[in-house]
Design a protein that fits this description.
Blueprint (H helix, E strand, L loop, with lengths): L4 H18 L7 E2 L1 H8 L3 H13 L3 E4 L3 E4 L10 H10 L1 H26 L2 H20 L2 H18 L3 H5 L1 H13 L9 H16 L2 H19 L13
Helix pairs in contact: 1-3, 1-4, 2-3, 4-5, 4-9, 5-7, 5-9, 5-10, 5-11, 6-7, 6-10, 7-9, 10-11
């Protein structure tokens, strides 16, 4: 089947991005657009479009009269959903560990802020999403549970009125989808985890920030505990 120009662009973008993430195109490698055209068997116009995206993500840098230099991880836009997705595909253990640790640091405080500042309408929406999670979780409907779970955490992040926490919502979506896609989400979530989501929602509705923070801390700590074995032997690379 012939790919549409859009699909061809996205396919090449993902291929090159994953090759950089996996080290198949190692940091410091110098390539030219023509090299990429030959390597991936596509047109130069598609290569140029993809290169622009990867430049914007800090993964490639043009050097005059030299070509394109593949950049090290410290230059990447690590919280961009595309980069997260590529790393989740090529190195899921390390990516899940880093993102889960980030959740542990951010989400409890976001829940406390939501308890201070959420409107009544948003608090009701969060409670409704907690109920959807409980229903789909008890039924073992993984897809419906994921949809409700992502919506719940996005709503909490946005409810406190902090635009930086709210911007973290796309990252949360990639984390939860990646965990589910990697088969690390149980079909029937632990009853305690379902109750803690209700506790977060109830605390937000009652404007109890301390209780909201504590309940969300339990949720992310449970995720950390459930997945810890996945990255137990994964090395860290300080300053990478």
């Amino acid at each position: 089947m012939t790919r549409s120009p859009r699909n061809l662009h996205e396919h090449l973008r993902d291929q090159v991005g994953q090759d950089i993430v996996a080290g198949r195109l190692a940091a410091g490698t110098i390539v030219k657009a023509e090299d990429l055209r030959a390597r991936y068997d596509v047109s130069l116009s598609v290569v140029r479009e993809v290169v622009r995206v990867l430049e914007s993500l800090g993964m490639l840098r043009p050097v005059k009269r030299v070509g394109l230099v593949v950049l090290a991880m410290r230059e990447w836009t690590l919280l961009d959903p595309l980069v997260i997705r590529w790393r989740m595909t090529e190195a899921p253990a390390g990516q899940l560990r880093s993102l889960t640790e980030l959740r542990v640091a951010i989400e409890p405080e976001a829940a406390a802020l939501a308890a201070r500042h959420a409107t009544a309408e948003v608090a009701e929406e969060i409670m409704t999403l907690a109920a959807r999670m409980r229903s789909s979780g008890r039924q073992g409907d993984v897809e419906a549970f994921l949809d409700a779970d992502v919506a719940f955490h996005r709503a909490v992040l946005g409810a406190g009125g902090n635009e930086l926490f709210a911007a973290f919502d796309t990252v949360i979506g990639e984390i939860l989808a990646g965990r589910t896609g990697a088969g690390l989400m149980p079909q029937f979530p632990h009853p305690d985890a379902l109750q803690w989501h209700f506790d977060v929602a109830d605390s937000i509705g009652r404007q109890e920030p301390g209780r909201a923070r504590e309940a969300m801390a339990k949720i992310v700590a449970k995720a950390d505990d459930e997945m810890g074995s996945v990255w137990a032997d994964e090395p860290r690379h300080p300053g990478r």
